[in-house]
Amino acid sequence: MISHPITGLVAATHTPFHADGSLNLGMVEKQAAHLQHTGIAAAFIGGTTGESHSLSLDERKALTKRWMEVTAGSSLKVVVHVGANCLGDVAALAAQAQEVGADAISALAPSYFKPRSVASLVDCCVQITAAAPELPFFLYDIPSFTGISLSMPEFLTMGAERLPTLAGIKFTNPDGMMFQQCLYHSDSAFSILWGTDECLIAGLALGATGAVGSTYNFAAPIYQRIIRAFGENDFVTARAEQKRSVELVARLASVGYMGAAKSVMKILGVDVGPARLPHTNLDAAQEKALQADLEEMGLLSAEFRV
């Protein structure tokens, strides 16, 4: 295992597209500037929010290369999600991430032909980590998408023996008991990153010190206030800010979360383009209504913009 603590907010970034759906690498620089303006310390690229399963291998490599070019010499860290159903592709992405200087890699499990046991999952991760032996590795546990519900404490136990670069887990899993078991596993040797934005306050109460999420792209100040208020034992403020997060997520989900989230970025001046099918996108009327609601929620002020 390897020590690689990640604290604070990590934005799971969107993959930017042109209006025709082609990759728009020119927007990455503005995305990175926006994250730094809103106090984000690291970007988690090419994950669920990044529509990784809708990208070709070449597109994913190009995206990683561009992020590393843009962040070179800056304080913004980059974690590259390399997960896919083909382990050969995963290994190629992991090797490239190491070559171009990423700070860490992460991968969800193959989810069409699924690992049926923790041992099988670790076998998969052995192939991934062997391709990038110098990079910290975070398993991406997201049962709601992969359909894989395995014991993460057992994974850490086996992984500590077989995965020299294992650093922790991106825990997008509602099981609070399992989260705590992972958090305190091996005398808290691993970074267990909370992955549910709309319940961040619960993660903090359970002991989380780092979190990865999609809404941190466009609403980071809300979550920074939650963290600050929680640290000051001001739970009234923390709960009020978390309520704003819940209302925002519910509003976006009501019209299709991915497309709506990308519309929010456009409204804030960081146009990451449309979502790719099978995601849907907002029409002009829906986007106008969303902008009005964001204004009413107080989410279009200068602190939310580049």
Protein model, in words:
This protein has helices at residues 28-37, 57-71, 87-99, 118-130, 143-146, 152-162, 176-183, 200-206, 216-231, 235-253, 257-267, 284-297; strands at residues 8-12, 42-45, 77-81, 104-108, 137-141, 166-171, 191-194, 210-213. With 306 residues, the chain is α/β, with parallel strands linked by helices. It has a single domain (8-232), classed as Alpha-Beta Barrel (TIM Barrel). The chain has an eight-stranded parallel sheet with strand order 7-6-5-4-3-2-1-8, covered by helices on one side. Helix 7 (176-183) links the parallel strand 6 and strand 7 (191-194). The chain starts with 7 loop residues before the first strand and ends in a 9-residue tail after the last helix. The relative contact order is 0.14. The mean pLDDT is 96. Keywords: Carbohydrate metabolism, Cytoplasm, Lyase. The active site is at residues 140, 170. It is found in: Cytoplasm.
Looking at this protein, list some descriptive labels.
306 residues; alpha/beta; TIM Barrel; 12 helices
The gist of it:
InterPro entries: Aldolase_TIM, DapA-like. The chain has helices at 28-37, 57-71, 87-99, 118-130, 143-146, 152-162, 176-183, 200-206, 216-231, 235-253, 257-267, 284-297, and strands at 8-12, 42-45, 77-81, 104-108, 137-141, 166-171, 191-194, 210-213. It is an alpha/beta fold and 306 residues long.
